[in-house]
Design brief:
It contains 3 helices and 8 strands; from the N terminus they run βαβββαβαβββ. The chain is an alpha+beta fold and about 140 residues long. An 8-stranded mixed beta sheet has the order 2-3-4-1-5-8-7-6.
Length: about 140
């Protein structure tokens, strides 16, 4: 069987102060933000820092009822999830559901950078929230 996962898209880190986190990455590693976006539907603001062919995604809540706000209240700052690239999000999600995986998104939905995404519940994946990410030709190039 071929792997559904084609690459690591991003590692997401939940933070209280996104500007402080951006400054820390810049001052510590010389790493700069290549994309910044508010995802209104999820109540978050994100900043992407390019690392090789992947990203560090800094996340902060923009409203108190977002899942990232709940995460920060419950667990504090730190690793939130891992995003894996897939060729076809709908197919990957269907295969996971057919294998008995517990999913958060029953169908793929729009993500940042014009991607298509779906989340897999951490109870299925050894305590790690997983995001499936299908790239779009209209999005920020990830392979430069």
């Amino acid at each position: 069987m071929d792997s559904l996962l084609t690459d690591i898209d991003h590692v997401a880190i939940a933070v209280h102060d996104i500007d402080a986190a951006i400054a820390w990455y810049a001052n510590t590693f010389g790493a700069l933000v290549v994309h910044r976006e508010d995802v209104v539907s999820d109540g978050i603001s994100e900043a992407l820092i390019k690392v090789g062919e992947s990203y560090v995604q800094l996340l902060t809540p923009t409203r108190e009822d977002s899942t990232v706000a709940a995460f920060l209240d419950r667990r504090g700052e730190g690793l939130h999830h891992v995003g894996y690239r897939v060729a076809d999000c709908a197919s990957a999600l269907a295969m996971l559901k057919a294998s008995g995986a517990r999913v958060i998104d029953e169908v793929p939905r729009p993500g940042s950078r014009a991607t298509t995404i779906a989340f897999v519940h951490p109870k299925t994946s050894f305590g790690t929230l997983i995001e499936l990410v299908q790239e779009s030709s209209d999005m920020l190039p990830t392979h430069q």
